[in-house]
Amino acid sequence: MFKNKITKQEWKKEIVDILLILLGCVFLALGSALFIVPFNIIQGGMTSIAELINLPIQKATGNNVTDLFVWGFNVLLWILGFVVLGKDFAFNTLFGSIFYPVFLSLFMRLDLVDRIGLMSFYQGGDSLSRLILLGIAGGVLSGIGTALTYLGHGTSGGSDVLFCITAKYTDLTEDVAGFIFDSSVIFLSLFVIRDWGIFLVGILAAFACSMTVKNLYTNRQKNYRVEIITDKKDEIKDFLQQQFHSTCTLSKVYGGYTNEEKDKVTVLLNYHDTKVFRSVIASLDPKALTSIDEVSEVKGGPFTPAHVNRKEAKKIREKFGILLNKKKEEEKKED
Length: 335
Description:
The protein is of the alpha+beta class. It has helices at 8-36, 46-61, 66-85, 87-109, 112-115, 118-123, 127-151, 159-169, 174-193, 196-216, 233-243, 271-284, 310-334; strands at residues 223-230, 249-254, 261-270, 289-295. The chain contains 13 helices and 4 strands. A 4-stranded antiparallel beta sheet has the order 2-3-1-4. Helix 1 packs across helix 4 (87-109).
């Protein structure tokens, strides 16, 4: 009866996640509204598609309606994500899909670019040099916003939906799909705007965004294998179990020169726990020999579940079942 009841701790986590997503949307919208959209910098994503569509409209009417196209894209892609990827994915992208265009429209309609003097700054000297500074600033703010939404276990919607769908139905990962899409949009801008300066600044802005995301989010999602050769295996094991609720592997090792027997403790930890654990080892056993290696992928246990959906599992069984049957038939013929 009470199995589905959400605990107080889970409520706090949900609230923190939502606040991170909202803050991420604020940074994303600031980066776009202040530094990217007003100066026609194309750094990838659906916002850049909206910019390219807006260009002829802005020339004809004098009004920048990029935010309205972003609204349309986000709504349509959210519906597509709900249909194709399910309600869980739709829920995770809901807040970002709503609040990013809300903040973008708010900042654009407040005309912050003129109010804080950015347009005067751009027009007050070497335009290309200043455009480079604007592109880097926009890329960094966008990267901060993206990292915050990811840390909140959500996204800002838009092209992220397309990346997830691509990853589901092809062999491409979300990162690769995103790189291909954003690169294509940036190269498209060269043919639409026909300005090498804007094209190159777009690449620089995309790079600044990518590096910011890597430093704020990607590095913190990595797992590490920590190996400790120590005389205090029980203390280290107890600390891991009590503080990190993590298990470890114990083994015996022998010195190649002295042939002295030692205990080795091996454990897999995330980025934050590894930083803490490194200091703990030094305090528990200053003479311990510690090796820390980055792990490219971990499946199972307390990490990413090692499973595939039923449809994919069926395909795999059928595929390798046929191969095995063919092998058996060939072996029979040879006999």
